[in-house]
Amino acid sequence: MFLMKPEIDKEKCTGCGLCVEVCRENGITVIDRVVVAVDGVECDWCGICEAVCPEGAISCPFQIVFV
Amino acid sequence: MKSKAELIQTSEFFAGLKADELDPIVNLIIEKRYGRDDILFFEGDATESLIFLASGVVKIFKTSPDGKEQILAIAHPEETLNEVPLFNGGLNTTTAQAMMPVVVYAISKRDIDSLMARYPLVASNVIHILAKRTRQLVNLVEELSFKRVNSRLAGILLENAILDGQAGGARLTQRDMAAMAGTAREVISRSLKTMEDDGIISFDKHRLIINDRDALKRVAETYS
Hints:
The complex is a heterodimer of chains A (67) and B (224). Chain A is α+β, with helices and mostly antiparallel strands. Chain A has helices at 18-22, 48-52, and strands at 7-8, 28-31, 34-37, 58-59, 62-66. Chain A contains 2 helices and 5 strands; from the N terminus they run E-H-E-E-H-E-E. Chain A has a two-stranded antiparallel sheet with strand order 1-4. A two-stranded antiparallel sheet of chain A has the order 2-3. The longest helix of chain A is centred in the first third of the chain and has 5 residues, at 18-22. Chain A is globular and about 40 Å long. The termini of chain A are far apart. Chain B has 224 residues and is α+β, with helices and mostly antiparallel strands. Chain B has 2 domains: 4-143, Jelly Rolls (Sandwich), CATH 2.60.120.10; 148-220, Winged helix-like DNA-binding domain superfamily/Winged helix DNA-binding domain (Arc Repressor Mutant, subunit A, Orthogonal Bundle). Chain B has helices spanning 4-10, 19-26, 83-88, 109-118, 120-146, 149-160, 174-181, 185-197, 213-220, and strands at residues 30-34, 39-41, 49-55, 58-63, 69-75, 95-98, 102-108, 162-163, 171-172, 201-204, 207-210. In chain B, the strands form 3 sheets. Chain B has a 4-stranded antiparallel β-sheet with strand order 2-6-4-5. In chain B, strand 4 and strand 5 (69-75) form a beta hairpin. In chain B, helix 1 (4-10) packs across helix 2, helix 6 (149-160) packs across helix 7 and helix 6 (149-160) packs across helix 9. The mean pLDDT of chain B is 92. The interface between A and B is medium-sized, with 18 and 28 residues. Strand 5 of chain A pairs parallel with strand 8 of chain B, so a sheet runs across the interface.
């Protein structure tokens, strides 16, 4: 199944790990001082990682749709 | 994506020109491709060509000295990105960044100038386009001056929404919405929550769904 993950700008990310601490799904980890989204974890797109990132390096963009 | 010839035929810049007048213009176009997040041009740089967006979505913004972004427009295919500095003869007034992979068609300033000299119709089209830009900026001033965040955000959602299942369309983070509404991300977050509690919008993971378009329009039209 295709799972959406937060988008991470590896150039901006300093690997501080704030987003790892706040993620309720344990969906983010730090590898080699850069944050990566964990495979197989279903992100609920709460955006808290985006809110805490001091570098603006992680984001949860929305597609805005009419139904 | 439109071909160079198709874009020239449908562009408002060249509206009214005959087919044999349009054909040579196609040869003036240079195609450029950018990846997501690439900068197409920076505020303060010289403007060398008129840029038509052929495919993708581009964010046009200004940055304050302390790094705060104000998004002035989200450009969609067939729009031009930099006509104001091009015709003003000055430096770029904004920065443009690709929000997804982007293809642009560029025509040099020298070629645009000679097309305007040769075809008065093109110059007249340019006046219409610049007047439309002025109107958009006046609308933005109105939004920022007189409307509360809720109303501004409602307008932003309506402008950037696409039909469910349709391709393309800007994908906006809460940070983007804040930069467009001229406020902080936290304020946008609260405002979205209020609209969700009111049943106007709902969230399905990465989809922000507009459930009640009329109610959202009413919010957008409310003045403080």
